[in-house]
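Weekend entry, working from home. Most of the wet-lab plans are on hold until the incubator is repaired, so I used the time to fold the two sequences that have been sitting in the queue since the last round of cloning. Logging both here for the record. First:
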Amino acid sequence: MRINNIFVAVSFVWLLVSFWNRNDLPRNIDYVPEITNEPAQTETRQRPFTAVFNEVEYLIEPEYEYDIVGMIVSYRHHDNNSRMHRLADDHLNMLDVCVVWGDNSTSDLHQIDFWNGIFTCNVFTRDQQAWDSFDMNQLSNNHLISDDDNIRDRVKDIQIGDQIRVRGYLASYSSARGGKRGTSTTRTDTGDGACETLYVKRFDIVQHATSYWRISMVASLLALLAGLAVHFGRPYRPY
């Protein structure tokens, strides 16, 4: 059936295009009111404490209470058994997530590229107007650390465009066999050490993004499977 063969080919191309664009920032974003708020950083009385994960004990040294609402523009999950983390004995760092808030919610974010390196968030655009309207002081890359399995599972569900609320401690942490990682305590610094290290006490996705590319990816996959089922379900006819 030639029509079905064309259907399979179109579905396959449709799937490839959708997959390629699946992490694009959604065009229509319904911002929550809290997105305009600056992160809340307050004094803490929490004393240093230990956390154990993957059979490694870490010393957590809180510096401030921290509460941030932001929209995810980039992220990078960390495999705690990857070479760099294994060598540093750093299994606690579960995710780097780059978020924006405040006036950036009214910027033309679709003209700006965001991507995470191993421990950095990178920003680039050729659009001068988009860059002029963007505030780098309302963007932060957050090293999220936790020894709570429920929180570690929850962060696996994030997507570009999701709006999240994270509460916990800005903190440094260290282990006996590894080094020590500090934290930024201001949103205006840049370069090495400018990222926030956040021991997570609570993680919430307050608004899921509606990604039509992801919806399209699922639809095209189902269409492709249906077309293949028809193709292979036809009786064999030798030529």
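Second, folded right after the first finished:
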Amino acid sequence: MNIVACIKRVPTTDLQAKVGGDQKSLDSAGVQYMVSFYDEIAVEEAVRLKEKHGGEVTILSMGPSDAAKEIRECLAKGADKGVLLTDSEWDQRDALSTAKALKAKVEELGPNLVLTGRLATDHDNGAVGPMLATLLGWACVTDVIELEIDGDKGTAKRESESGVEIYDFQLPAVITCQKDLNEPRYAGLKGIMAAKKKPVEEAACEPGASQAEVTKLSVPPARKEGRIVGEGAAAVPALLDALRNEAKVL
């Protein structure tokens, strides 16, 4: 199988975000990055499918040149090669512009299967995977928690609000991965050393205009300090009054 796993470089989840001077982006000073959580699941599933069926796994990402670090982390877990679409304004692209750029490279790579995370943990919109599938004209199943591939056919279970749904599909296809699909492995020393010798191609990202534009960023307002309204049973009337008239939750 020829599998592409799409990953996104995102700020670490413990980041104390600060708005940059342009009021449209994050202050990049001191920001550390990681592979988006759900994308790690996509990479793990891609490697597992390769181990079961044979073939090759390519990691595809978009970002600045130093985003090769996150690609190398995935190569250390068993992927075979990486492709980085370099774009200094990658984090300003909307989902459609991103999907169009990925589509062009996916067509060039010619995979049977593309795996992505169900969403990226920065923008949290979950749109790139389905848009990529639509642009390619491929089948797509989202939020997958179980995946089986047999020849040119596949079966996927996905979570929905009404329960678990089961879909049969034909390859090629795009699958977006939910957290219950697998448990991502840690990279061992052997994998880390091998990753240093695996190829990572850098290619200029296909330009594209976004339909959506960030006009302003702001951090949430600070929470009001809590207060003690009393002690024991005597505090109940004051608590109820505060919940009813101040918090307005009753």
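Plan for Monday: verify the second prediction. The first strand starts at residue 2 and ends at 6.
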